[in-house]
Amino acid sequence: EVQLLESGGGLVQPGGSLRLSCAASGLSLSTNAMSWVRQAPGKGPEWVSVIATNGYSTYYADSAKGRFTISRDTSKNTLYLQMNSLRAEDTATYYCAKFLEWPDYYFEYWGQGTLVAVSS
Amino acid sequence: QSVLTQPPSVSGAPGQRVTISCTGSSTNIGARYGVHWYQQLPGTAPKLLIYSNTNRPSGVPDRFSGSKSGTSGSLVITGLQAEDDGVYYCQSYDPSLTESVFGGGTRLTVL
Question: What pLDDT shows up at residue B95?
Answer without folding.
Answer: 86
